[in-house]
């Protein structure tokens, strides 16, 4: 028995034809670990994009759970694309749900294969120590805060087992680091400043993330938060590939209100569903 219906496969193929270019199609399939197969010389498909999707389809055994799970990742990567509209994301989710699949943010899975929640046991005294460190950083001289904040964030991500990478430079651009959450890689921009971060900084970071790959994500951590006008203007633009955290969010995580992994995952789902860059951890917990 095939685990994904021909109707879903056909509708998704036509979606790719209408909304993706060849590079996008190659990206979402290769990221999922699917290689191109070979079509028969007399295949009926017309057009480069339609043919390309079918070439990937030919290498998938639709009765094999491992192969199908790779295809479900393709669907998730498609939903995650920042350039498609909220209406198109909704259409993709509905296609999946009509096939009996479950869509959780950008994660698509069959009911028997729901992924295990990201559960990390963190000792309360470790949270308390980092909470005290954050308070200590706020009392440092301005020139010392940036380095201390980066060190603090690295320890925070290590504590929650998110595989952080320290600061690195790419083509002259300073990216403050990266981390891994499940199958997703996030680039980090971290600012320690008491004033709120404005729209210009968000646009610059979004551009940096977009320049890396179509599936990259970004987390902008601004201790001082974000200006209301900046958030409103940013949300009115094109779809976001970045999410934000502020000092209140960090304190809520360090107070044990929610794990860091869950906070980021819930923020990412909120962004995927609404197109909005920021929602506070406080509101997420109580929504």
Report on the architecture of this protein.
- It is built from 12 helices and 8 strands.
- The protein has a 4-stranded mixed beta sheet with strand order 5-6-7-8. Strands 1-2 form a two-stranded antiparallel sheet.
- Residues 113-117 have low confidence and may be disordered.
- The protein is 51% helix and 13% strand.
- The chain folds into 2 domains: 6-113, no CATH class; 124-286, 3-Layer(aba) Sandwich (Trna Endonuclease, Chain: A, domain 1).
- By secondary structure, it is α/β, with parallel strands linked by helices.
Strand content: 5-15%
The global form is elongated
Number of domains as seen in the coordinates = 2
| Sheet/helix structural class | alpha/beta
List keywords for this structure.
287 residues; alpha/beta; elongated; two-stranded antiparallel ribbon; 13% strand; 51% helix; Trna Endonuclease, Chain: A, domain 1; four-stranded mixed sheet
């Amino acid at each position: 028995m095939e685990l994904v219906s021909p109707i879903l496969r056909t509708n998704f193929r036509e979606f790719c034809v209408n909304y993706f270019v060849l590079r996008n199609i190659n990206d979402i399939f290769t990221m999922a670990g699917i290689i191109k197969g070979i079509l028969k010389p007399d295949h009926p498909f017309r057009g480069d994009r339609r043919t390309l999707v079918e070439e990937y389809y030919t290498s998938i055994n639709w009765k094999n759970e491992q192969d199908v799970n790779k295809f479900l990742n393709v669907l998730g990567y498609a939903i995650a694309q920042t350039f498609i509209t909220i209406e198109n994301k909704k259409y993709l989710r509905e296609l999946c749900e009509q096939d009996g699949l479950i869509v959780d943010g950008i994660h698509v899975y069959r009911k028997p294969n729901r992924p295990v929640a990201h559960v990390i046991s963190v000792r309360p005294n470790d949270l308390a120590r980092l909470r005290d460190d954050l308070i200590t950083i706020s009392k440092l001289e301005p020139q010392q805060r940036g380095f201390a904040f980066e060190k603090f964030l690295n320890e925070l991500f290590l504590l929650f087992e998110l595989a952080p990478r320290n600061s690195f430079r790419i083509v002259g651009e300073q990216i403050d680091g990266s981390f891994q959450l499940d199958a997703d890689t996030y680039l980090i921009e971290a600012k320690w400043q008491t004033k709120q971060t404005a729209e210009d900084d968000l646009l610059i970071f979004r551009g940096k993330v977009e320049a890396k790959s179509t599936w990259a994500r970004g987390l902008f951590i601004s201790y001082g938060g974000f200006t209301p006008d900046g958030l409103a203007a940013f949300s009115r633009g094109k779809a976001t590939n970045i999410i934000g955290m502020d000092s209140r969010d960090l304190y809520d995580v360090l107070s044990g209100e929610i794990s860091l992994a869950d906070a980021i995952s819930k923020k990412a789902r909120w962004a995927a569903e609404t197109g909005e860059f920021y929602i506070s951890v406080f509101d997420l917990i109580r929504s």
